[in-house]
Amino acid sequence: MALRPGVTSPAFAARQAAALDRLSDGRLLLNVVVGGHPAELGADGIFLDHDARYAQAAEFLTIWRDLVAGKTVDFAGTYYRVAHGRLDFPVVQQPHPPLWFGGSSDAGHEVAAEHTSVYLSWGEPPHILKDKLADVQARAAKRGRKLKFGLRIHFIVRETETEAWAAADRLISRVSDEQIENAQKRFKVEMDSVGQARMAALQPGDRNKLEIAPNLWAGIGMVRRGAGTALVGDPKSVAARIREYQEIGIETFIGSGYPHLEEAYRVAELLFPELGIDGRRRKVSDNIVNEFAVGSHSTERRLAAVS
């Protein structure tokens, strides 16, 4: 779930996080979202400039982390003041649920190094992304910390390379040059996100030259803000690219595709076996017996459970 500094108070957010972590029995993950679209932020009542938002986020997370860790908090900063704050209901995950975060600016790297568990990036070519990850890790090391890394990217996987690239072409076949131009101008004018600027910089300016690294396609970023690249290819090729990202430190992949459901099935059926992931339905535990029981449960056991 998103954790948005500035939209709510750190103390209230800490109580929400504790409740969700307890209800989910320690399965809560939080993605810290500072934001990069001033107009949208203004609609939420946030009117700080880029670096000030990250300074506010740093104060927010300082308070939030101490509260969730069970400390009594007295804090006086530029953006927040807390007197004798505490959280009465401890979280399951200690010292707090994992904080995920993506920010490509220097200010973002500082927040990541100081406060978060997993640093996320959009899909840039590995040789470019490697330098960014190294910078974040070096900043964390100065604080005696070590971060994990994740990648947010789209997938277009088909049985053959030809089929995959044809599917990519179809996704943008009805997008006009005027729409692309308008979208790119809007991203530059409306957003102050360094990550978005890095995505825009990957655009080659020619819709016929969108493969910006082996199997890495920038077509989505022509009109979609945020994660603008996709891994395109057959299962072996995409698996090879994933391993290249693993080699530079990426441990977690957050994927999507268009249409979402159909591409999820293709990734599970075609890509998972190449990655050594067993995508078959797991057997339901024998100690689960109710009217919705499936798998190993017989009709007689289901009927007995509801009778």
From TrEMBL:
The lineage is:
Bacteria, Pseudomonadati, Pseudomonadota, Alphaproteobacteria, Hyphomicrobiales
Q: Which InterPro entries match?
A: Luciferase-like_dom, Luciferase-like_sf, SsuD_RutA_monooxygenase
Q: What is this protein called?
A: Alkanesulfonate monooxygenase
Q: Which Gene3D superfamilies match?
A: Luciferase-like domain
Q: What is a GO molecular function of this protein?
A: alkanesulfonate monooxygenase activity
Keywords tagged on the record: Flavoprotein, FMN, Monooxygenase, Oxidoreductase
Q: How would you classify this enzyme at the top EC level?
A: oxidoreductase
One Pfam family this chain carries?
Bac_luciferase
